[in-house]
Amino acid sequence: MLLDNGRQARLQQLPAVERLFNDERVRKAAGTLHPRLIKRIIRDYLHEVRSEIINGRDAQFSFEELELRLLVARKPTLTRAINGLGVVLHTGLGRAPLPKVAQEALIDVSEHFSALEISLLDGRRGSRYQHVEPLLCELTGAEAALVVNNNCAATLLILSTIAKGREVIVSRGQLIEIGGSFRIPDVMLQSGCRMVEVGTTNRTHLRDYENAITSETGALLRVHTSNYRIIGFTKEVPLEELVALGRKYSIPVIDDLGSGALLDLSRYGLPKEPVVSESIAAGADVVCFSGDKLIGAGQAGIIVGKRELISKMKKHPLTRALRCDKLTYAVLERTLELFLDEERVVREHPLFQILLKSPSEMQKQARQLLNAVQKRLAGRARFEIKPTRAEVGGGSLATESLESVAVAVKPVDISVDELARRMRLFRPPVFGRVVQDEYLLDFRTIRADEIAIVAEALIQALA
User: Fold this and answer.
1) What is this structure's pTM?
2) How far apart (Å, rounded) are the C-alpha atoms in residues 170 and 199?
3) What percent of the chain has pLDDT over 70?
4) Of the N and C termini of the chain, which has fewer Cβ atoms inside 10 Å?
5) In order of start, what are the domains of the chain with their CATH numbers?
């Protein structure tokens, strides 16, 4: 690429890596960072500036920006964060906090050796499925179960085992795309099966499935549209009817629930989400769902269903590539144990504490934050408690929102975007949402023991 004289001159003015590495300001900002990391951060930043200049953008080197990057790098990037966004299962913030019993199990198996694949009865090599399979069968009514590293992997394994080289019939209205642009048709392609779309986007009938069945049909697939809804003039085939059709032609029925719930949320005033045990009771041969959404454990893809099919999956070569480690099993086992006692899981699990938090409790906590900062920040910002709406997130209850309460902060001397940036750079980082000229801290997701931290972050950002 030929560059004009102006861009060439700006490129030549960029400082050398070694000169910056030896600069006193850089060394001070870097603190105890390893020299190799310091040089990498310098090189990466210079590369960004150089690319911007070459592409004709108005970029220039900034010592302040480099110092900021070094200061941020001095602390681990994967750190605890405070969720003031009002999205309960926020993928970027690691979804829900783990229950206390799961935290304790995590420490226990990470500090010591663990009986991951050994039988306590006879001391012989065992199966890692032993830790969760009985619990999953008890909670769902399934004959067998296994766990892989996420629900996309679960779908891939199921299709690869049951229908590789064969046709799988699915409704056009269920060809979902999940986070990161991963699409059901792409997963099906990777599994080796051939997708057969039936119906239309908004209406699919039982006859559409039946008319598509051939000698090459390997499975009927239902996919729960967990991250969107089609409303209005719509038609979807109930699972019971799809199961009856599958049995008529001896074709297995797969139910991909996405989020998956182990208890009926509607009993607690929340919108209805498909319950795994209901799919098993309806006769689905295989059901898959996530472990880190409405179950609130670590990331996992859970598969439950008929023993014969699950046994084939356990022997499939992909299972080794997709299997979970001891930490996942430790967290999942203790979390599933909570669900055996519904009153206990609602009382102790942080996910349900957040989902069922009352408006009066959120109002009280918002007032506590105001009391902590208003006098200290008089003249620096205006504060107001406002009603707002929170989201479940994580592809769960897509069209539903939850009543919530937020503290709205309108800074006087800095922009609202700069306030958001300063809050993110606090340790631990605090995440709020910018709405027009206000910075909102949503108390659906801010917990009681975090109020003092949020107050200190605001004081440091605005004082």
Assistant:
1) 0.89
2) 9
3) 96
4) N
5) 5-73 (no CATH), 82-94+354-462 (3.90.1150.180), 100-348 (3.40.640.10)
